[in-house]
Design goal:
The complex is a heterodimer.
Chain A: H1 3-7, H2 22-39, H3 41-62, H4 76-106, H5 109-114, H6 120-148, H7 157-181, H8 185-202, H9 212-219, H10 223-235, H11 242-262
Helix pairs in contact in A: 2-6, 3-4, 3-6, 4-6, 4-7, 4-8, 4-10, 6-7, 7-10, 7-11, 10-11
Chain B: E1 2-13, E2 16-27, E3 31-35, H1 42-49, E4 57-62, H2 73-79, E5 80-83, H3 95-103, H4 112-118, H5 134-146, E6 152-156, H6 164-179, E7 183-188, H7 191-197, E8 200-205, E9 208-213, E10 226-231, E11 246-247, E12 252-257, H8 260-273, E13 279-284, H9 288-297, H10 309-317
Parallel strand pairs in B: 3-7, 3-8, 5-6, 6-7
Antiparallel strand pairs in B: 1-2, 1-4, 8-9, 10-12, 10-13, 11-12
Classes of the chains: A mainly alpha, B alpha/beta.
Chain lengths: ~270, ~325
């Protein structure tokens, strides 16, 4: 190989070619995350379709129910439309990120990605925005199903959107945080379910809880505050749920701290 | 200009000194092969150059910058491509989408179509990654390594698991990258790969470089004795022959000589005079593999240091 050919290429003095714009690069990432997500039958079924199916089935179950008789003056669907929406956000953000990041770390995709010039924060911005898009589609669909079964649209749109965005961001941070603590991707799904199932259960996502002790416990955990905030926003009862939003924020900060301290691109040692 | 410079590199893991004083350099525009048995320190050295591992000591420069210094990592990621041993690609994107996605990460990428064609994936460009064969996935990996138009490419055992046709195809790709000005550092177990591709090779054994040179001259290969080999004609004994020979297990005889012309002339003249034929007559130059085996033989870990599972079990059962 002749030296001349090689030295024609400026090596050390290369001008910093315009790096791809950050916003454009984030949109580029969102696009490919969306393609991967919607083509994967497992994520489409478990993450996306399952909550929508649940609300459709609940709608059929509670359609003969007397109004105001299910939960403190709410009908079954008035109770479940916001809580299943909250559940779907939890799955799309926490569940999806915890599992997919663990799998990508295990099979070396993260290591390879980290060797490209894609900035780490752009990768995460794309992933979080993708999870928000999936959540938004789910919440809209679930709200629409509820509406078809006679549930009024949220009375306080601002509170509903603020709670959903903050909740989604917190759940994403928790998902990244939990994925940082999972060293083996085969355990990822089990660990995620092990946290998700009891949390949904005591937070009243499967059925209303009538236990003050359980409610106190669940109020300090990340799920029930979003349920309560959304119930309030849908029915228009109560003020801005500052306490619930503060708990969500605190969990989000905790998840982010764990993620920043413990996140690895590579699961070696 | 050196694209890679390694001087007196050291790296230890908890109980093992994996790299002990490795030095070599890769010149701009050449293909340099690092050969060595498993556990010799090839991958550790490569991972230090790729910025995945920190070194304990020594000097390392990649395109003139220190890969252990995080201030350079963003710059190096733009100008260095790598293909690792493990296949790591998203299953649900198509070949073309995967390459186009990574192209978006670089300031001045190669054309996606050109890279698809270069790696022989044109017919598979609309196939989802999960439906590719192992060899096709490796080629996609190679495509991702070169899409950023790197000045330097690291290839860690690039053709392990390829069938012979795919290997020759991959070699053509690597050569065409070199001819387009990319410097390449590759590791391999395959001597024919080093012979076919490398401008220069280094043999690493037990954490040290034991020889460096071109594939034709490494380890004194060009000066080594040539072997003339044939089957002894019926009714002759080795003592009858005009040159000294040794007898092999299979009944063939071998003469080891520095310069085969004269020895061959004597042997064939001797045979023709007697109306005999030298069956299976060959002249062999020591292969790169022979040289490699000679160079690495002294450095194989003693059995005591690395007990087989069987003997380890034996130790455990003995109080």
């Amino acid at each position: 190989m002749s030296q001349a050919t090689a030295t024609e290429r400026p090596v050390l003095t290369a001008p910093a070619a315009a790096a791809p714009g950050r916003l454009r690069l984030t949109l580029h990432q969102i696009r490919y995350e969306q393609l991967s997500f919607w083509r994967n039958p497992q994520s489409v079924f478990f993450t996306f379709a399952l909550p929508v199916m649940i609300i459709v089935i609940f709608g059929a179950v509670f359609s003969g129910n007397q109004p105001d008789s299910f939960f403190y003056g709410l009908s079954g669907m008035q109770y479940f439309t916001p809580t299943v929406a909250a559940l779907s956000v939890f799955g799309a953000c926490y569940g999806q990120l915890a599992v997919s990041l663990s799998i990508r770390r295990q099979n070396g995709i993260l290591k390879r990605l980290h060797a490209t010039p894609l900035p780490a924060w752009t990768y995460f911005a794309g992933l979080l925005a993708h999870a928000l898009v999936v959540s938004a589609v789910e919440v809209l669909l679930i709200t629409l199903v509820g509406y078809c079964y006679g549930v009024p649209l949220p009375a306080q749109w601002g509170t509903a959107i603020a709670s959903l965005v903050l909740g989604a961001a917190s759940f994403c941070a928790l998902g990244v945080g939990v994925s940082s603590l999972i060293s083996n991707s085969e355990a990822a799904s089990a660990v995620v379910q092990f946290i998700q199932f009891p949390l949904m259960f005591i937070s009243g996502n499967y059925f209303p809880i009538h236990s003050a002790v359980l409610d106190d416990v669940a109020d300090a955990l990340p799920m029930r505050p979003l349920n309560q905030a959304l119930l309030g926003a849908f029915t228009g009862h109560g003020d801005v749920p500052w306490r619930q939003l503060a708990v969500l924020l605190a969990w989000g900060v905790l998840g982010a701290l764990v993620a920043v301290r413990r996140f690895r691109w590579d699961n070696r040692r | 200009m050196n694209h890679v410079l390694v001087q007196d590199l050291h790296k230890s893991y908890r109980d093992k000194e994996a790299v002990r004083g490795v030095s070599f350099h890769v010149e701009a525009g050449e293909i340099f092969a690092l050969l060595g048995p498993n556990g010799a320190g090839k991958t550790t050295t490569l991972e230090i150059l790729e910025g995945f591992r920190d070194r304990d000591g020594g000097r390392v420069e990649v395109l003139g910058r220190d890969p252990g210094d995080r201030a350079h990592s963003a710059w190096l990621r733009r100008h260095v491509g790598l293909v690792l041993q493990d296949i790591a690609v998203e299953p649900y994107l198509t070949v073309r989408e995967t390459i186009a996605r990574n192209a978006g990460y670089y300031p001045a990428p190669r054309s996606v179509d050109e890279v698809v064609e270069l790696t022989g994936l044109t017919e598979k460009s609309r196939t989802r990654v999960k439906d590719l064969s192992g060899g096709q996935k490796r080629r996609l990996d190679l495509a991702l390594g070169v899409i950023g138009n790197p000045r330097l490419l690291f290839l860690d055992e690039p053709t392990t698991g390829f069938d012979p046709n795919a290997r020759h195809g991959a070699w053509d790709v690597v050569r065409s990258l070199r001819d387009a000005g990319t410097s390449i550092l590759l590791t391999t177990h395959y001597m024919d790969e080093a012979q076919a591709l490398a401008d220069r090779v280094a043999v690493i054994a037990d954490g040290r470089i034991v020889a460096t040179g071109t594939p034709a001259t490494i380890g004194g290969r060009d000066h080594a004795l040539k072997r003339i080999r044939f089957t002894l004609p019926d009714g002759c004994s080795p003592a009858d022959l005009p040159v000294p020979v040794s007898v092999e297990d299979d009944g063939a005889v071998t003469a080891s000589v520095a310069e085969p012309t004269l020895a061959l002339h004597r042997l064939t003249g001797w045979a023709l005079d007697r109306g005999l034929l030298l069956d299976g007559l060959t002249v062999e130059q020591p292969s790169l593999e022979d040289v490699y085996l000679g160079l690495t033989a002294d450095h194989q870990p003693a059995p005591v240091l690395e007990p087989s599972p069987l003997s380890a079990a034996g130790h455990r059962s003995t109080p």
